[in-house]
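Recap from last week: sequence in, structure out.
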Amino acid sequence: MVTFKTLGKACWLAGLSAMLIIFSGGTSLAGTLDPPGGDQSMPSLTDIYDRLSGHEVGAGAPTSPAAGPQATGHTLKEVLNRVDAQGTGGPLDQPFPPHLALVQRMPYPDGRFSPGVAIPTPRFSETDPSGAANPGLVRDHLTGLEWLKHPVCMGSVNFAGAGQGIADLNAGLKDATCFANGTNPGGWRIPTLFEILSLFDFRYYNPVYSNYQGNAKGTDTFDVNFSDYYWTSVSVLGVTSDRYVVTIDGGSITRNGILLTNNLLPVRSGNFVAPVAAISAATPVSTNAPVSLNGSSSSLPNNTGGATATYKWKLTQVPAGSAAVLSDPTLVNPTFVADRAGSYIVQLVVNFGTWDSPPATKTIVAQ
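Predicted structure tokens:
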């Protein structure tokens, strides 16, 4: 993988080669610009190349005459020492940002320069966080992110429409295509530029990502339009009315105004956990006795962003002739009076921010 450091030092090598040709008239320089005395050995471009490649400088380097001209500038030795100094934390030695560090390892070694991260096998799978099958999701085992398998349900929309589509997706209001094969609402968002780029494997084209195993082009990994542009959440610096967009056929990046229409590939954290409603209540109870319900044992997802829990209780079944009602269906612990003998079925849905839990039910028997 080519790093910033590799590119920078390659440019230095090109510049050094040009200077040697200019100042020597195409011939090899015979000496060093060091003043008399001191170390008179002159490293060659091969030495510099070896040093940049992480190898030791070979023995047998040519030496200069016992005396040389007065110093008029930096010697090759000084340049070489400077190159080594750059390798100890200079600006070209900084690692890639975490997102770019996820680019696959190229099929050749980088020497001492920063390597990429090996592609896992399988690269993708249709599983939820527990490892259970969920054909509506595409889990990336390189990044841990979850992607919507069938994003065609989001349509082609402007940027505001993309935001509204995400809100509808999280509320469970999109059509059945979005939730095919068990995909659940909640936690979805517009991807960042680096997140969508992390999907790409540039060994392939149309599309530019792999299959599930990571060993061929992924024509069936996503249900998408390959040639269309896809929104990212990243705005162009200084131009808040533009967002970066990406094609999935070849991975090209450009910018589009927020009023233009593009497709959307929703993503969410791979550790997303939907809310789980839980009901605590005593049963059986005596007829005409008050019944206390409690939803405080419902589980919180780990990515609510500090959202406050809300509760939605409902009596879905009561005995014939009963007039039972909940004291307050929005409390964590409402009550009702079991005024007839028989079965009462209580339902609870818990909401944390933008998504609901699946409904939980409990049967209370009055005797």
